[in-house]
Amino acid sequence: MSIPPQHQNKQPGIEHKMMPEPRYFNPAYKGSDKLKDKVVLISGGDSGIGRAVSILFAREGADVGFIYLDEHEDARQTQQYVKSEGQKCIAISGDIGNKAFCQNAVQKFVEEFGQIDVLINNAAVQYVQENLEDITEDQLEKTFRTNIYSYFFMTQAVMPHLRENGSIINTTSITAFRGKDVLIDYSSTKGAVLAFTRALSQNLAGRGIRVNAVAPGPIWTPLIPASFPEEDVAGFGEDTPLGRVGQPEEVAPCYVFLASNDASYITGQTIHPNGGEIVGG
């Protein structure tokens, strides 16, 4: 897939403005009720990896609740896709960096669905800065609040409702393992997500709740044109061993696996859909 130069001026980006639009739905994927009668809550579920996960979970029989910032058109489209799979879908707009919002959103989902079985902490922002000195206090606060504070806030809000055999899946990044020179604060938050996953998995193991992570490499999502200069977006992902960018539909099955009974003996671990780069030792 050839990616032309492009840039968006607002984080975390708009999917329907991307050229070409990401592939979020693989029509060849046949659901097999791996998540039948489950309810999943996803942050950043309107676009990118979150949209692909929302649709795939619905295809596997789960009802979906997702949170998004203010990308209303993307959110409406995702709701339509989920509902076309025959499942319920509720979307709530707001800032997950605010603890009170997270608590209120979770309560609304519980009132609607009556349960939460899977939490996917996925939303994130990233801002390119060439030098450490250029990272302002406001940027640092925004990046950490969105990318790691929200994982604490959402998980704390969901914990009273998760039962034994529940699952928490956190989206970290390849940058947690090898860094990224122009994404120092983003890489730092993703390293924190990795540590959060490992520590929480040990804390919750005795309660029968599994905690795992997915660490995507270069995936074609709205965050990319919303972050990088247009000349850097062109050819994005071509330096991977597989020689191309990844698509959200290629990442979403990792989340299905970790949420399902197929991964019943897996906790504290990370899956790496990154095009072939060896990371983590």
Brief overview:
The protein is of the alpha/beta class.
Mean pLDDT level: 96
What is the CATH C level class, in words? Alpha Beta
The poorly predicted ranges are none
- The count of domains is 1
What Rg, in angstroms, do the CA atoms define? 17 Å
Total of helices: 8
Q: Please name the CATH topology.
A: Rossmann fold
User: N- to C-terminal separation?
Assistant: 30 Å
Per DSSP, what share of the residues sits in E-state strands of 2 or more residues?
5-15%
Say how many strands there are.
7
Strand order, sheet with most strands? 3-2-1-4-5-6-7
CATH superfamily: NAD(P)-binding Rossmann-like Domain
Structure description:
The chain has eight helices and seven strands; from the N terminus they run E-H-E-H-E-H-E-H-E-H-H-E-H-H-E. With 281 residues, it is of the alpha/beta class. Helix 1 packs parallel to helix 2 (72-84) and helix 4 (137-158) packs parallel to helix 6 (184-204). The chain has one domain (33-271): 3-Layer(aba) Sandwich (Rossmann fold). The chain has a seven-stranded parallel beta sheet, sandwiched between helices. The radius of gyration is 17 Å and the shape is globular. The model has no long low-confidence stretch (mean pLDDT 96). The protein has helices at 48-59, 72-84, 99-113, 137-158, 175-178, 184-204, 230-233, 248-259, and strands spanning 39-43, 63-68, 89-93, 118-121, 167-171, 210-214, 270-271.
